[in-house]
Design a protein that fits this description.
Elements (H helix, E strand, L loop, with lengths): L1 H19 L11 H6 L2 E8 L1 E11 L7 E8 L3 E11 L12 H5 L14 E10 L1 E3 L30 H7 L32 E3 L1 E3 L4 E9 L30 E11 L5 E4 L15 E5 L2 E5 L2 H7 L12 H7 L3 E6 L5 E5 L5 E12 L11 E24 L3 H11 L6 E5 L3 E7 L4 H13 L3 E10 L3 H4 L9 E5 L7 H5 L15 E6 L5 E7 L1 H9 L1 E4 L2 E4 L6 E6 L8 E6 L5 E5 L8 E5 L8 E10 L1
Antiparallel strand pairs: 1-30, 2-19, 2-27, 3-4, 3-15, 4-14, 4-17, 5-13, 5-16, 6-7, 8-15, 9-10, 9-14, 11-12, 16-17, 18-29, 19-26, 20-23, 20-30, 21-26, 22-23, 24-25, 27-28
C-alpha cells in the first residue's frame, strides 16, 4: 500500500506541475530539484460530512441477479416479507415425445412407428437453487466451512487418524470416522467401498435467520399478463416492475399449484437410473445417474400442466414465447406462517419447472420388417420451463421504529437527525461533503486549492450507533455502497479500483465501504477511500481574483445504500415518498432486506468525518 501511495503521489505531483507551469513562471520543473527545493510533509485535516435521511416509496425489482424470499424481523426496521412473481420461458413449437402432434394426428397406417403417444404428466417440480460454494483452499477435498484447518491439507477434520487429503484420495469420507456406517472406523476398516465418494458437500450461502424453520409455502397461477415492454414508452423501452406490486393481493391468481407446510432440505439431490441393464451384474437402478445442487424443490399440480402445456402440443399457444405467456402468464410464490425468521436470497436465474411425462412408443422388438411381434411400451421425458422474462420481488415492510419516520421528515426538510437508517430497497441517505451549503464547501476547499495541497488519500468514516454494542446478536451488513447522487453512477474510485477479494462481495476493497471492528471486537464504523472523488471535485474548482468557484457539484453529493453485491451497481428506478419523483438507485441497494442504524449529525457522538491526507510544502 505504501508503494501504491508513493506512485500515486508522484503522478499527482507531475500532473500538478504540468498543469500550472504555463501560468506560474516560478514553479519548478518536475525532477529531483523539486523535491530538494520543496520539502514535503504529510498532513491531514478532517472535514464535516452531513447526512440526510431518505426513503423510497418503491424501487424497481425486476432484472435482479437473485430473488429475496421469506420473512425477517429486525428490532429497528420491523418485519420484511418478500415474494416472487415470474413468467416462464419456452422454446418455439416444442415436441413432447418423438413426434409432433400433426404427425400423430395424420399418421400413415403404413408407418407403424408413428402412433398416438398419449403423453401424460407423471410429476412436476418447481426448483429454485440456493447459492452454494465449495471453496477448498487447501485442496484436501473438504470445503473451508467444514474443514478443521482450511489452510492445511494434512489436517484430520473427523479425527479418525487419517488426514483429509488421504481420505479424499482413497474414497472415504473425511467428515465421518465411519464412512460406510458398518461400525468399524475408517482407520481400521479394510473395505469402505459401499460409501459413495461422489457425494458432494456444499456451504449454503445467503440464508438468514433459522434455516431449519418451517413455513407455509404457496405457489399459484398468475392471471395478469406481464408485458416486458412499457406501454407508457410506446413499447420502445423495457417496463419496470416495482417492490410494491402485489398481483396476488389484487386478485390476479388462478389455480393453486401447491400449498402446504415446508422445510428446506440442504442435501444434494441424487437421481438413479430408471432401468437395469440385464447384461451387467450391477443393478443400475441402485446407481446414481446425476446429482442436483441443494435447492427448494416443490411438487406442483400435475393436472394443471397436463392441460396448460402437454395437451397444447401443436396448438397456436405454443407457436412462440409471447403466445405461451399470454396463456400461461406465470406464477406467484409466497410464504407465511414461519415458525422462526428465515430470509433467503435465491438463484432465480437458474430456477425452473421440470415437467416429467410418460408417453407411448412402438417397440419393434428388434424386427423392423415384422410387425406381428411389435408392442407398445412407455417412455419418460422431462420438459423444462425456466423461470425468466419478467421476474420481480414484492417486498412488504411493517412495524418499524417510529424514530425512523422522524429522521425521514428531517431529511425531506434537509436538516440533520440523530440517527440515519439504511435498509435495502427502502431507506438510504444523501451525504454532503465539506459542509451543508455551497458557502461552507467553498470555505473548506479554498485553502486546499490556494495552497496547492496534493491530496494523497481521502477517507470517509460513517459510525454505527451504540445499538450494536448492547445487542451483539443483531445482524450487521458487511458493506455499504457510495454513489454519485442523483445520477446513480459509481464514484470515480470504483473505476480505478481493480482489486479482487477472496469471497462474495469482497472485490474493490480499496474503495471499501466495509464494516470496521474496534479493539474491543465490536462494530465501529464503515470506511471508504474516496481519493479519486475528492481529486475530481478539486480539479473542477477554479480561483479567479481570489474567489473560489465550484462549477460542478456532482461529486459533492453522494448517495449511501446497502452494498450487497459490489459488482451489481447499475442504476435502476426508485420513487421517493410523498410524490417527490423518481431517482436513480443502485442495484446493489435493492438486493437485501437488512439494514443498519448509523449515527446522524445531531447525535452526541461523532457521526461522520472526511479525513484528507495531503502533502504540503514547507
Amino acid at each position: 500500500m505504501q508503494i501504491k501511495h508513493s506512485i500515486l503521489l508522484l503522478a499527482v505531483v507531475m500532473a500538478t506541475a504540468f498543469g500550472v507551469s504555463s501560468c506560474d513562471k516560478e514553479f519548478h520543473s518536475v525532477g529531483i530539484d523539486l523535491f530538494e527545493n520543496y520539502g514535503f510533509k504529510i498532513q491531514s485535516e478532517t472535514y464535516p460530512v452531513y447526512l440526510y435521511q431518505e426513503q423510497l416509496e418503491k424501487v424497481q425489482t425486476n432484472g435482479l441477479p437473485l430473488s429475496m424470499f421469506g420473512e425477517y424481523t429486525h428490532p429497528v426496521f420491523g418485519k420484511t416479507k418478500s415474494q416472487i412473481t415470474s413468467q416462464l420461458q419456452i422454446n418455439t413449437n416444442p415436441v413432447f415425445g418423438n413426434f409432433t402432434q400433426e404427425q400423430e394426428d395424420d399418421s400413415d397406417p403404413d408407418i407403424v412407428s408413428i402412433i398416438p403417444e398419449n403423453e401424460t404428466v407423471s410429476e412436476v417440480y418447481l426448483e429454485i437453487p440456493f447459492f452454494t460454494n465449495q471453496n477448498d483452499s487447501d485442496l484436501d477435498g473438504v470445503i473451508d466451512s467444514r474443514d478443521i484447518d482450511p489452510d492445511n491439507n494434512q489436517s484430520d477434520t473427523d479425527g479418525d487418524g487419517i488426514t483429509d487429503l488421504a481420505e479424499t484420495q482413497s474414497g472415504t469420507n473425511p467428515l465421518d470416522v465411519d464412512s460406510d456406517g458398518d461400525g468399524i472406523t475408517d482407520d481400521q476398516d479394510d473395505d469402505s467401498s459401499s460409501y459413495d465418494s461422489g457425494d458432494n458437500v456444499y456451504e449454503i450461502d445467503s440464508l438468514y435467520g433459522n434455516r431449519n424453520a418451517t413455513f407455509n409455502l404457496k405457489v399459484q397461477e398468475l392471471t395478469y399478463y406481464l408485458s416486458q415492454l412499457d406501454p407508457d414508452e410506446n413499447f420502445a423501452a423495457y417496463r419496470p416492475y416495482f417492490s410494491t406490486t402485489d398481483y396476488a393481493a389484487m386478485g390476479f391468481v388462478g389455480e393453486t399449484l401447491f400449498e402446504g407446510n415446508f422445510q428446506l432440505d440442504f442435501e444434494e439431490i441424487p437421481f438413479y437410473y430408471e432401468e437395469d441393464d440385464p447384461e451387467t451384474d450391477i443393478d443400475e437402478t441402485t446407481q446414481i445417474e446425476g446429482r442436483l445442487t441443494p435447492r427448494i424443490r416443490v411438487p406442483l399440480k400435475k393436472s394443471f400442466f397436463q392441460k396448460n402445456l402437454i395437451d397444447l402440443e401443436g396448438d397456436v399457444a405454443l407457436e412462440n414465447l409471447s403466445n405461451f405467456q399470454s396463456v400461461f402468464k406465470g406464477i406467484i410464490i409466497q410464504a407465511d406462517q414461519f415458525s422462526e425468521d428465515l430470509m433467503m436470497l435465491l438463484d432465480i436465474n437458474n430456477a425452473l419447472i421440470k415437467v416429467n411425462f410418460d408417453y407411448d412408443i412402438n417397440n419393434e422388438n428388434g424386427t423392423a420388417d415384422d410387425i406381428t411381434d411389435d408392442f407398445i411400451e412407455t417412455a419418460n421425458e422431462t420438459f423444462n420451463l425456466p423461470l425468466g422474462g419478467v421476474t420481480f420481488n414484492t417486498i412488504q415492510t411493517e412495524s418499524g421504529d417510529p424514530a425512523i419516520a422522524e429522521s425521514v421528515l428531517a431529511g425531506i426538510q434537509k436538516t440533520p437527525s440523530e440517527k440515519i437508517y439504511i435498509q435495502g430497497a427502502k431507506y438510504f441517505a444523501n451525504l454532503a461533503l465539506f459542509g451543508q451549503t455551497a458557502i461552507q464547501q467553498r470555505a473548506a476547499i479554498l485553502p486546499i486549492i490556494s495552497e496547492r495541497r496534493l491530496v494523497n488519500e481521502a477517507n470517509l468514516r460513517l459510525y454505527v450507533s451504540d445499538l450494536y454494542r448492547t445487542n451483539t446478536t443483531i445482524y450487521l451488513p458487511e458493506r455499504l455502497y457510495l454513489y454519485l447522487s442523483p445520477s446513480g453512477n459509481p464514484l470515480p474510485d470504483y473505476a480505478v479500483d481493480n482489486t479482487i477479494g477472496s469471497g462474495t462481495n469482497s472485490d474493490k476493497y480499496i474503495l471499501s465501504g466495509l464494516l470496521q471492528i474496534d479493539d474491543a471486537g465490536l462494530p465501529s464504523h464503515y470506511e471508504f477511500t474516496i481519493t479519486e472523488n475528492i481529486n475530481t471535485l478539486l480539479n473542477k474548482a477554479t480561483i479567479k481574483d481570489g474567489v473560489l468557484s465550484l462549477t460542478d457539484y456532482e461529486n459533492f453529493t453522494l448517495g449511501l445504500v446497502l452494498g450487497t453485491n459490489i459488482s451489481q451497481i447499475a442504476p435502476r428506478e426508485g420513487f421517493l415518498i410523498n410524490d417527490r419523483g423518481m431517482i436513480k438507485y443502485p442495484t446493489t441497494g435493492a438486493l437485501s432486506p437488512f439494514g443498519v442504524e448509523l449515527l446522524g449529525n445531531l447525535a452526541e457522538m461523532k457521526a461522520a468525518e472526511l479525513e484528507v491526507i495531503y502533502n504540503a510544502t514547507r
